[in-house]
Amino acid sequence: MEYRPFGSTGIDVSAVSFGTAPLGGLFGPVPFEQAREAVFAAVDLGVNLIDTSSYYGDAEERLGRMTGELPGDVLLATKAGRLGWDEFDFSREGIRRSLERSLRLLGRDSVDVFQLHDIDFRPLDPILGEACEALQELKREGKCRFVGMTCYSLPTTRRVMLETDVDVVLNYAHGTLLDDSLTAELAPIARERGIALMNAAAVSLGILVPGVVERTEHNIASGASLAAAQRMARSAAERGVDIAFLANQYALQRVDAATTVVGTTSLAHLRSAVDALSAPIDAEALAAALAHRLPLAEQQWVVGLPENEDWSWLAERSSGPQAAATGN
Asked: What pTM value is reported for the model?
C-alpha cells in the first residue's frame, strides 16, 4: 500500500480507501459476515480510510458492530444531507441530527471526516453558507476532525474549494480514463488551498467495464461518454487487457488525488484494486484507450440542478460556446 498526504490535515492516507455503499446493501443484499470479511480484508491490505454515509443503507450500523475490532489508526468518514434518491436535507438542524445518529450507529464519540453528501442536487448558496457553518460548528465541538463535501460536477466542486474552508472534497468520475479534469482542474486548487482531494468512481460509475459494450444507455453518463467508454473497452479487449483493471491503474497511478475510494464487498475485486496501485501499466493499451478520450468540454455530464452548472470559468479560456461545456 502507498500512503499520501491528506491535504493539510497532517495525516497520511492510503491511496486506496474503502467505500461502503455495497456493504450497506445499496446495490443488493450482502450478508453481514461477507461485509465484515471485506472490511477486515481491506484493513489487512493496508487501507486506513473507510468511507461511509447515512445514505448507505445499514452500513453505519454494520460498521458500528465492528468498531471495537478496527485498529485505532483506521480513519472513519461519514456523510449527511442525502436521505434518498431524490431526498435531501442540508439544513443546520438536519446536518446536526444526521451526525448525532451516525455517531450512535457507529459507536463513536466523533468521526475523522464528516461531509455533506451529493450537494449538486440542491441550490448551492445555502449549502456553501449556512450548511458549511454547521459543519464548522460540529468540528469546533469535536464531533468531527475534518469537514468537507462530495460533488459530481466540476463547477460545483470548484465553488466548494474556492468559496469555503473545507478540509476535504470528494469528487466522482473526473479522475478516470474518460475524464482527467480532476487532475487538470481540481488538483491545482486543492494544492493551493491545502484541501484533501478524494477521487471516486474510477470505473466511471460502472461504464469502464467489459460489459459496457453491450449497454445502450446509462442513468448518468452522457451518450458521448458512453460511446467513448465502449471504444476504450473494445481497444483494451483487442490487446487482452481488462478495461476495469486499466481504469483502476490509471486512477491510482496517474490521477493527482490523495486517495481513490473503491466500493466493493468482493474480496477478488478489492485485491485487484490494490494490485492496480503497483502493477505496471500496459503502455500500448493505455495509449490506445486514451486516444478515445473526448475533449474536456465533451467529457462532462450534467448532474444535479442546471443552475449549478456555471461553466463561465471554462468559457473564458475557451473559444467554444459555453453551452458546449455540458457535453450534451
From this structure: 0.93
CB atoms within 10 A of CB 100: 13
Chain centroid to CA 85: how far? 17
Catalytic, 172? Answer no
Determine the Cα–Cα distance for residues 180 and 10; give it in Å rounded to an integer.
Answer: 26
Reported as a single tens digit per residue, the pLDDT across 169-209 is 999 999 999 999 999 999 999 999 999 999 999 999 999 99
Rounded to whole angstroms, what are the CA distances from 79 to 145, 170, 186, 297?
13, 11, 21, 30
Type of residue numbered 294:
L
Q: Based on the number of CB atoms within 10 Å of its own CB, is 83 exposed (0-12), middle (13-18) or buried (19 or more)? A: middle
274, 45 in Cβ contact below 8 A?
yes
Q: What is the DSSP string of 302-323?
A: --S-GGG---HHHHTT-SS-GG
Q: Which three cell numbers stand for residue 295?
A: 475533449
Bridge partner list, 5: 12
Is residue 313 assigned to a domain? no
Secondary-structure breakdown of the chain: helix, strand, coil percentages, each rounded to the nearest 5 = 45, 15, 40
Q: How many domains does the chain have?
A: 1
Mean pLDDT of the chain: 94
**Within a domain: 270:** yes
Query: Is the residue at 156 inside a domain?
Result: yes
Residue 60 lies in a domain: yes
- Residue 255 is part of a domain; what is its CATH number? 3.20.20.100
- Exposure of 50 in the CB half-sphere (CA atoms within 13 A): 34
User: What cell does 149 get?
Assistant: 463535501
Q: How confident is the model at residue 151 (pLDDT cuts 50, 70, 90)?
A: very high
Res. 326 pLDDT band, cuts 50 70 90 = very low
pLDDT of residue 328: 33
**Domain boundaries, position 116:** 3-206+242-282
Q: Which is it for strands 49-51 and 16-19: parallel, antiparallel or unpaired?
A: parallel
> Cα-flanking dihedrals φ and ψ of residue 105, to 5°?
-65, -40
The pLDDT of 5-18, averaged and rounded, is 98
Catalytic residue among 55, 56, 152, 172: 56
